[in-house]
Amino acid sequence: MNPDTLRHRRRAQLVAAGQWNPWGDLDQVRTHIRHLRDTGVSMKRIAARAGVGVSTLSYIMGPARLVQRGTADRILAVAPDDRLKAAIDATGARRRVQALQALGYSGADLARAAGISRRTVTALSSPAGADAVLPSTAGRIARAYDELCMRPAADSKSARTMRTWAAKQGWLPPLAWDDDSIDDPGAVPDLGEAVPRFVAIGEDAAELEALGYPRDAIAERLGVTRGYVVQALTAHRRRTTAHEKAA
Questions:
Q1: Which residues fall within 8 angstroms of residue 85, CB to CB, at 6 or more apart?
Q2: Which of helix, strand or coil describes residue 239?
Q3: Please, are residues 24 and 56 in contact by the beta-carbon 8 Å criterion?
Q4: Contact 130, 124 (CB under 8 A)
Q5: Where are the beta strands (DSSP E) in the chain?
Q6: Using the 8-state DSSP alphabet, how is residue 176 labeled?
Q7: Which class in CATH covers the domain with range 8-82?
Q8: How confident is the model at residue 230, as a pLDDT?
Q9: Torsional sign, CA 187, 188, 189, 192
Q10: Which of 24, 94, 222, 238 has fewest C-beta within 10 Å?
Q11: Mean of per-residue pLDDT scores for the chain
Q12: Crossing angle between the packed helical segments 54-61 and 43-50, to the nearest 10 degrees
């Protein structure tokens, strides 16, 4: 008998018996995905092994309220690689830690968010930096990075000190790294057009203001004070007016 026919017949039997449940356990699937990430398995690898799209995994980890049983079973069948129990290159973990510190997150903030020791954060963010890291540690850092990379740390003396320190070290923010290449030691950051920071802040602030963001929110998003935003916007408008007159 055709396999599809058998499946439909079995489904009809379960429906008739009141035992048909097309949905998997969403919480169990999410927990399993987090476990795989913590052991160093990337979202792309999970998706490839489960035969689903990365966007499907992102939806499951985000707004999803249900997950189809077949999808759940395929994801739950994905197991960590034994070879990932050995230490791996620390490039991606180091870049993520330094990028978040460029946003103002302290070592204590990152240790807490990633569930790792402060010593590990220090080792990754030191000038020499760690050369290798356990996959489980890399996975936890990657998960914390995914959650924090679009949110600058709340303005505080600690955050300002951290941003200043990171800038002096030449550490790059998350926008300088592509998600697909941040783990590649040979990847080159996208630094964009070389313009002074004050000019760049003014341009970004003008775009956000045009989108309806209030200045307090702009300051928080760009990791600067409200007064800095006001000054940068004023200078940006003067430059724009001067360029228009010269054109």
A1: 39, 135
A2: helix
A3: no
A4: yes
A5: 88-89, 132-133
A6: G
A7: mainly alpha
A8: 87
A9: negative
A10: 238
A11: 82
A12: 110
Mean pLDDT computed over 187-216: 78
Half-sphere exposure of 103 (CA within 13 A, CB side): 24
- What's the start-to-end Cα distance of the chain, in Å? 77
* H helical segments located in 62-116: 69-76, 91-102, 107-114
Rounded Cα gap, residues 223 and 104, in angstroms: 8
Per-residue model confidence (pLDDT) at position 224 = 76
Q: What digits encode the pLDDT tens for the residues 13-55?
A: 655 666 556 788 999 999 999 888 776 677 888 888 889 888 8
Closest by CA position to 73, among listed 13, 9, 23, 4: 23
Residue count (the chain): 247
- 22: nearest Cα among 70, 76, 77, 74: 70
Task: Return the percentage of the chain with pLDDT > 70, whole number.
Answer: 84
Look up tokens 């228009």; give the residue.
Answer: 244
pTM over 0.90: no
- What is the pLDDT averaged over residues 166-190? 84
How many helices (H) and strands (E) would you count in the chain? 13, 2
Across 74-149, the runs of DSSP E, i.e. the strands, are 88-89, 132-133
Task: Return the amino acid letter for 215.
Answer: R
Domain ranges of the chain: 8-82, 88-176, 197-246
Beta strands in 116-227 (DSSP E): 132-133
Instruction: Give how far Cα 8 sits from Cα of 17, 24, 97, 170, 229, Å.
Output: 14, 19, 51, 61, 62
State the residue for tokens 């010593």: 119
Chain centroid to CA 146: 2
